[in-house]
Write a structure and sequence with these properties.
mainly alpha, Ferritin, 2 domains, 0% strand, elongated
Amino acid sequence: MRFAPLHLIAAIGIVAAPAWAVSLPAAGPAQSLPDSSVTSLAPAESLAAGSASLVPLMAADMQANQTNTVDAPATAGGDVGKPIDDITFVKKAMESGNKEVKSAKEALPQLQEPELKRIAEMLVNDHSGANARLSKIANEKHWPVAAPQVQQGPPPSGTASSDFDAKWTAEMIAGHERSVALYRAQAQAGEDPDLRKYARETLPTIERHLTELRRLQK
């Protein structure tokens, strides 16, 4: 009977030990755990915050790159206009060619400079031939073709102003600059292979006209 209290004390000690162990973390030393956990998680939280801030920047960069690709100017390689569809090219090229032929025919009796007269005759011949080739291509593909402008009556004669040569030359230069840009764009980016070939073959002639006109501009 003397040992009963000892066994009872041991049993009480065994039961009390888990209770003490469980209550121990709630004591003072365990209070440092929250600080430690916060410190260890800080880099992860910082990384997450940094990644979140980088997402809009990365998206903006991607959008900027796509915009540059899509909106890259067609003139980056020189005086090249924006590519247009084939039928629109035929329409614009025919209108431009017919206008230059008409203007050159009307100017011939009024031009004073012999070199300008020679260029006007060259414009009539070259653009008439180019218009005929372009009209043939368009007709074979059943595309609409602008009808040539009909000249009303004979061209005026002896009524030119003193600065007619200069004005006509400036007008022809502006028209040929537009034509060069139009033909270059078609030669490089046109969809129809026949039109691309026509544009490549005709472009040197138009560029030669422009060079001659600029040389004689006063």
